[in-house]
Amino acid sequence: MILSSDPLGVMRALTRLSQAWMNDFPDFVVRLQALSKQFQDLALNEIENACAAFDAANSEDSQPRDTLHFIRQFSGMARRSHALFGEFIRQLVEDAPDIDEESRRKSAFWIDQMLGALAPTNYFWTNPGAVQRSLTSRGKSIENGMRNWMDDRLHGDNLVRMVDGSAFKLGENIAATPGSVVFRNELMEVIQYHPTTDTVFKTPLVMIQPWINKFYIFDLSAHNSFVRYLVGRGFAVFITSWKNPDGTLRDVTFEDYLFRGLVPAIEAAADICDSNRVHAAGYCIGGTALAALMAWFNADSGSSTAIPVATWSLFSALTDFSDAGMIGVFTDKEGIEMVEHLTGWDGYLDSRYISSAFRLLNSNGLIWRYVVNNYLYGQMPPKSDLLYWNSDGTRLPQAMCIGYLRDFYLSNRLIRPNDMVMDARPLDLGTIAQPAWIVGAEQDHISPWKGTFQTCHYLSNCPATYVLAGEGHITGIVNPPSPRSRQKFRAGMADGTCSPDAWLADQEIRDGSWWPEWVQWLTTNSDTAVVTPPVGNLNHPVLGPAPGTYVVG
C-alpha cells in the first residue's frame, strides 16, 4: 500500500487549527498583540537586570563575575521566553473556534512535543548545569556525552538510552524468583513459581501478562516482585511468558492469543493444582484479553462444564476504548494505515516503533531528561530494574496488531453486546458472573483511570470492586508494601450506576499499597489451603527453569 505523506494526520490537524484562527483573525491579532507586549515587557525587564548587574560589577566592592553568572542570566531569559510562547500557543489550541476535537487533541499533542524539544534545558548553552559540569570536569563531561550519543547511534534504534543495561542479568538479579516452565507452545510459556509456604490455596492464580512487553514486570528485583509477594502469601502462582514473534507468526490474531495462550495457561494451572477453578489476573492488553475471554466463557451459559475461573482481576486494562487517552493520536484510521505499512514487509511491528510511541506520550520524562543526563551532563543512564524492563521491548504480529487496533481502539466493539464474535460465541460483558477486581492508576497516560473504571458500567451481572492507585501505568500496579512508601489508594464497590468522579468522591484515601487488600479478597474467594502442589505433573512436565527461553528472544 502507498503510505500517505502525512501518515499520522499531523499537518492536517495543524492546518485545521490555523484555518480556525484565520476565520477568527481579529481575535488572533488581539492575542498576538498581547504576546508581543509580554515579550516587550520581558525584554525591558532583562535590560534593567543587565544594567543593574553592570553597575554592581563596576562598584568598588564588587566581586568578579564568572562565566556561569552570565550563562544563568541568559538561560533564565530563554526559559521565561519559552514559557511565554508555550502558554500562548497552548491557549491557541484550547480556544480554537469551530475545530473538531480530534484535530484539537492532535494539535495539542504535537505542539507539546515541539515545545518539549525546544525547552532551553535541552541545549548546552542554555543549561547552566551542563556548562558547569564541562568546566569542573575540564571538558570530560562533553567527551562522555559525545560517547553516549555515539553509542546510542550505533545501537541502531535512534533512541536515547534510559538505563544502564549492564547492571542486570535475567534469572540472576531480575526475573529471579525461583520457578519452572511447565508448558510451552508456539506462542507462549507458562511458568509455575516454586511454593515457599507449607500449604497453598487450592485455587491457583494465573497472571496474564501483556505481550507488548516481557512478562517480568511482575518479577523485577526481590523487594518489588509481585509474584514473590504472592507466593509468600500462600498462592500457587503461574504466569504467561509470550514469545517475541517473528515473521512466521504474522498471521497470529488476537483470538489466537486467547485460545492458544490464555486458555492453555488456565488449563495447565488447574490441572497441576488439581483444581476446577483458578483466579485470573490480566495486566494492560492481557487484561483486555481476559475480559474478552470471561465474556466468552459466560456466553455458553447452557454448558454443563463449569467456568474454570473463580475470580478475575484487571490491572490498568481497558475494555471501553472511547477515551483511550493520548495514545489515541496514534490509533485513528491514518495511524492504523501506517501500522499496516510498517508491518507489511516483516510481518510484525518492530519494538522500536512501539517504544517510540509510548515514550512520546511522556516525552519530558522518557526522552528529554535522558538527553540532558546522558548527552549534556555526560553521565551514564541510571541502574533501574523498572527501566531495564521498559527498554526490553517486543514485537507484535501483523494480524494481531492491526486487528486489535481496528476492533478495539477504532471500533470499540467489545462494549457492544454480541457485536464481537470469537470462536462462534458472541461476547457480552454483561453476562460475566464471576467477581471482578479492577485497578486503575491515577496518572496513567496509557490506560486512563476513568477509562478503566468504565468497565464497571458493563458488568451488570457480577460484583465489581474498583481500586484507584496513585502514580502511573507501571508504578501504580508494581506497588509493593513498604514502611517508607508514600503510596495511597482508594477502593470500593462499583456497580456502574455512578460516574468515576461520583465514585471517587465517596471513597476514603488509604495509605500504603493495595496489594494486601487484593490478597485478602483473593483469600476470601479461594478454596481451603492444601499441601503444596507439585511443580508440574505428568501432563505438564518441567521443561526448564524460570525465567524460561522465550523471555530472551
Strand order of the largest sheet: 15-14-13-12-7-6-4-5-2-1-17
Helix/sheet category: alpha/beta
The helix count comes to 18
Which runs of at least 5 residues are low in confidence (pLDDT < 50)? none
Number of domains: 2
Cα-to-Cα separation, first versus last residue: 30 Å
* Overall pLDDT confidence: 93
Count the E strands.
17
The CATH fourth-level homologous superfamily of the largest domain = Alpha/Beta hydrolase fold, catalytic domain
Tertiary shape: globular
Name the CATH class of the largest domain.
Alpha Beta
**Rg estimate, integer Å:** 27 Å
Question: What is the level-2 CATH architecture name of the largest domain?
Answer: 3-Layer(aba) Sandwich
The biggest beta sheet reads: 11 strands, mixed
β-strand percent reads 5-15%
Helical content (DSSP H or I, runs of 4+)? 40-55%
CATH topology of the largest domain: Rossmann fold
Structural features, described:
The structure is a single chain. With 553 residues, the protein is of the alpha/beta class. The protein has two domains: 10-136, no CATH class; 179-323 and 383-552, Alpha/Beta hydrolase fold, catalytic domain (Rossmann fold, 3-Layer(aba) Sandwich), CATH 3.40.50. It has 18 helices and 17 strands. The strands form four sheets. The protein has an eleven-stranded mixed beta sheet with strand order 15-14-13-12-7-6-4-5-2-1-17. Strand 1 (179-184) and strand 2 (188-193) form a beta hairpin. Helix 1 (10-22) crosses helix 4 (101-117), helix 2 packs antiparallel against helix 3 (67-95) and helix 3 runs antiparallel to helix 4 (101-117). The chain starts with 9 loop residues before the first helix and ends in an 8-residue tail after the last strand. The model has no long low-confidence stretch (mean pLDDT 93).
